[in-house]
Amino acid sequence: MNWHSIFSVSLESIIGSTTIAYALAAIGLNVHFGYTGLLNFGQSAFLGVGAYGMAITVSTFDLPLWLGIIIGLAGAVVLALLLGIPTLRLRADYLAIVTIAAAEIIRLFYRATGLRKWTGASDGLQSFSQDFYDLNPFAGSKGINLFGDLITFTDRELWILVVGWTLVLLSCLVVFLLMRSPWGRVLKAIREDEDAVRSLGKNVFSYKMQSLVLGGVIGCLGGFVFGLDRAAIQPDTYGTEFTFFAYTIVILGGAARVFGPVVGASIFWVLLVFIDSTLSEASNDHVFPQWLMTTSQAGSVRYILVGLGLVLLLIYRPQGIFGDKREVMLDVR
Amino acid sequence: MLTAFLACVMLSFGIGATSAWAAGEALQGTLTNNGAPVPGVKIKAFSQDGAAVGEATSDDQGKWKIPVPAAGPYKVDLDVSSLPPGVTVTNGRPSLTPTVADGQERNVLFPLGGGAAVPGQNQPSAPTSGKLDRVADLLYSGIHFSLIIALAALGISLIFGTTGLTNFAHGEMVTFGALITFLFNVTLGLPLVISGVISVIVGAGVGYLQDRTFWGWLRKRRTNLVTMMIISIGLSLALRYLFLYFFGGESRAFSDYNAQAGHQYGPFLIAPKNLICDVIAIVALTAVSLALVMTRLGKATRAVADNPALAAASGINVDRIIRLVWTIGGALASLSGVILGAFQNVGYQMGFQILLLVFAAVTLGGFGTAWGALLGSLVIGLFIQFSTLWIPTELKTVGALGVLIVILLFRPQGILGRRARIG
Predict the structure, then answer these.
(1) How many domains does chain B divide into?
(2) What pTM was estimated for this model as a whole?
(3) Model ipTM?
(4) Domain carrying residue A96
(5) One domain, residues B24 and B158
(6) Is residue B245 domain-shared with residue B149, that is, in the same domain?
(7) Are A172 and A259 within 8 A, CB to CB?
(8) Partner-chain residue, chosen from A105, A236, A318, that has the shortest CB–CB distance to B227
(9) What is the pLDDT of residues B196-231, one digit of tens each?
(10) Does a structural domain hold residue B2?
(11) Looking at CA atoms only, how far is residue A206 from chain B in angstroms?
């Protein structure tokens, strides 16, 4: 068992790029679910649209990266409108079914062999991130090396961390300011009692739509970070599991809390990476007997744990770590 | 033999992610003549631009396989001169151009006959009869698939009707049914029919216990419905990967009736096992639907669905009814898994893959109505199959889910639903 590498990857994931991408996805989801009470189960689609919008523009059509980012953002807005128009007038679980279906539709399109020319089908797309790394002010430096090789980030990783955490903090600031404003109070009121808000003359549909767009755009930023960090995108990254992870993060950190999703993402990924790498090291070294756990089985344990974790959190502590009992739409006792 | 012989006729039902676990793209098939394997036949594959990709010779079981470098269309030629004397390709087409999807091991079918049919004789009428055969195939496989969906949809719809829970873990009950059957049939070696019966009983038991120990307890804690729905999503995730943990990622077949040859019933070429499955499914669906309408318990169930408080006040034991609904739902889901497994092999996410289609069917028919679930399933099943006439097979799920979204735009309560349920 190589404990050094286990602790190293676990500690790095406190602020790592995966954590950033999930934190952004969760901040967006928090706007939907935590503040407005919208059951969006297609958050992965917003990240996918962002990442693919950027990658297709740059890698398929050879256009500049800034244009790709604009197209990605526009894609997220359009997706939010398309999802919202049929469902936002209906009961909450219809939105859940439609968003999860839409996310699958979009993923199947990314995979479709007929569209290989543009999307690369199941191979995904590469070579779209050069413009981004050309801007790297840390290029050529040694990056970060703390505690004697325990936490190391290369110059490339450092650049994505700086950009990523800037985006996270900006998104948090936007959410904080908006939720203090009258606009944010209307959103929270919609979560508590839609009919009461309607009777006060507010256009509930329009507010929900604005919330869906805002959260989708924030999630889409996570898609950029995810794609640029790996310098490659693949359709199956943006499957339903992504959304379920983001939900677990929101509920773990505490819904309707500005920093809840960020702290939730850090804790979630540290735990998950620690368990994952410990199990895979253990099964590689045959610590467990072969009938109990093989290396390929070790990979599925994380999903089982996330699923169980989500169930237990919802039953015993739906407000998560930092949530306020009065503010969570899930019933708390 | 893992891949059913008929898969290429019936168009396999892989839904996107199925292929994620497959090793690589390949063309494969099994050559049989009246049930006997035909070894030593040479088959060559060419890419679209005519370059040779590989060749294979069928082995003692008549099987052949040519790995191909990437997804896409290929030309597959069967060397007619290497066939045993007197044996011919009955439809007179020894050269086919199948399209391999990503990660797919595409089955290519060369129907062989004992020299009875002379190639060329069928040629003039081939194009029209080919089209008709295709439509007949799609019609039958659409009905077959919609029965599989309907079994799961009826359970979801009844559970939603009586408890208000949108159960995302229902797909895992379908997978569970198939896995239990696999356990008894393949691991323990019991016949498929007995394993299927055991699986339905176990499924009913699990449905009962699930409500007895878990959902009933949550209801008693007055957990709200949104929370319960997210709990069911967490449960579905945990169960799905628990299945992966124990079953593994590849899809495997039951040990009986695998490569059952089709029988010609009028224009339909149907494997008898599928026909028997259909009869069982129709009997089960009719029995449950009639029981809902005709029996006292069925009346009580509808009363609970309509207004639980009023039902309780008039002396109906609401908890007992809900437990009964879960039991029936579990049994139907298991049956659906058994039939799906016999039709397209057993995999750890087979239930999750049809779950969205089941939701589409239930929404289309109208949430909480039993007849609506059946009608919606029929529409979705047929729509999925017939859409492959115009769109690529790998995108047929997209069509069905697209229909779901369009329906919600124009008639959100579904075909048979009531306005009051949606708002």
Answers:
(1) 2
(2) 0.78
(3) 0.88
(4) 3-236
(5) no
(6) yes
(7) yes
(8) A318
(9) 999 999 999 999 999 999 999 998 888 888 889 899
(10) no
(11) 17
